[in-house]
Amino acid sequence: MKILITGANGFVGSAVLRLLIKNGHEVCALVRPGSDRRNFDGLDLEVMEGDLKDTGSLERAVIGCNILFHIAADYRLWTPDPASMYATNVNGTRDLIIAATKAGLDKIVYTSSVATLGTNKDGTPSDETTLVTLEDMIGHYKRSKYLAEQEVRKLIKEIASPVVIVNPSTPVGPRDIKPTPTGRIILDTIRNRMPAYVETGLNIVHVDDVANGHLLALEKGHIGESYILGGDNMSLVQILEYICANQGMKPPSIKLPHNLVLPIAWVMERIANITHKEPRATVESVKMSKKIMFFSSDKAVKKIGYQSRPGIEGLDDAIQWFNTQRYE
Known about the structure:
Elements: E1 2-6, H1 11-22, E2 26-31, E3 46-49, H2 55-61, E4 67-70, H3 82-102, E5 107-111, H4 139-158, E6 163-168, E7 170-172, H5 181-190, E8 196-197, E9 201-206, H6 207-220, E10 226-229, E11 232-235, H7 236-247, E12 254-255, H8 258-275, H9 283-288, H10 298-304, H11 311-324
Parallel strand pairs: 1-2, 1-4, 2-3, 4-5, 5-6, 6-10, 7-9, 8-12
Antiparallel strand pairs: 9-11
C-alpha cells in the first residue's frame, strides 16, 4: 500500500509522516519546489515535487497510490495576496480530491480545521454539529478553509470521493519549523516578548496525538464524516502562565481590551505591507480572539478510539524544541 501525503514537511504533516514510516508504510511526500525540508532529515521516503496550484502535478502524484492524506494548506493569519491563499486552500484541495478520486484511491483523509466550525457564545465547547455559516468566518484563512471543506463535501456527494474529514484544534509540540501562529505565541512568551494578553481560549493538543488521530480516521473513520482532533480547553492566560512557570519567568499581568489591540494590529499590518514581513499581531487574529475557541473531541473518542494526552505536555515539548533549536 502506497500513501501520498501533502504538507508532509509541515508541522502536522511531518508528525503524520513519522508515524506512518514508524508503522512500516511506503510513503510519498508531495512538496513544493524549494520548500523547507528539514522535517525530512533522517527519514526514508520518496519525495515528489508539485504544487496545489498545478493540477498536472497533482494528477501525476496520485498515480500508483492507494491512500491520500491531504494535509497541506496555506496557514497564515495575514497575507499580502489573499487570492493565492484561496487558490491553494480551496481550488487546490478540490483539484487534488478530484484527481485522487479519478485515480481510484481507496480512501482520502482530508485535514480541515476547527477554524471551519462554529463556537458557542457562552464559551462551552462546540462540536461537529454546532451551526456555522460562511459569514461567521473571520479572515481569509478561516474563509478559505471553510470553503475548501464545503468543496470536499460536494465531491463526496457528487463523485463519491472516499473522504474522511478531520478537524484538528490547536496543535503544539516539536518540529514547528515555521512556526505556526500558535507556535509563535509560545516562542514569543519564552523569549519575553509577550508583555500583555487578551482574553480568549484555545483547545490545546499535542501534535503527535493529532497525527495518531489521522491514522485512526484512515482505519476507522466513515466516509463523509468529520472528527474533531482536540485536547484540553485552556484560556490564553492559563497557557501563558504555564509556559512562564515552565521557564521560571514572571507571566504577563496586563490584560488588554480587544478594541485597544485592533488599531495596533492595523498599524502593524500597514507596516508589513511595506516591509513584507509578517506582523506579530494581525487584525484577523485579534478579531478571532474575541471568540472562545473551545471544542469537544467526544465524537472522535467514541467513534474512532481517539485519545489525547494533557495539552500541557504539548506545550512542554514545544518549549523544549524551540529552545533546543535555538529559535529567536
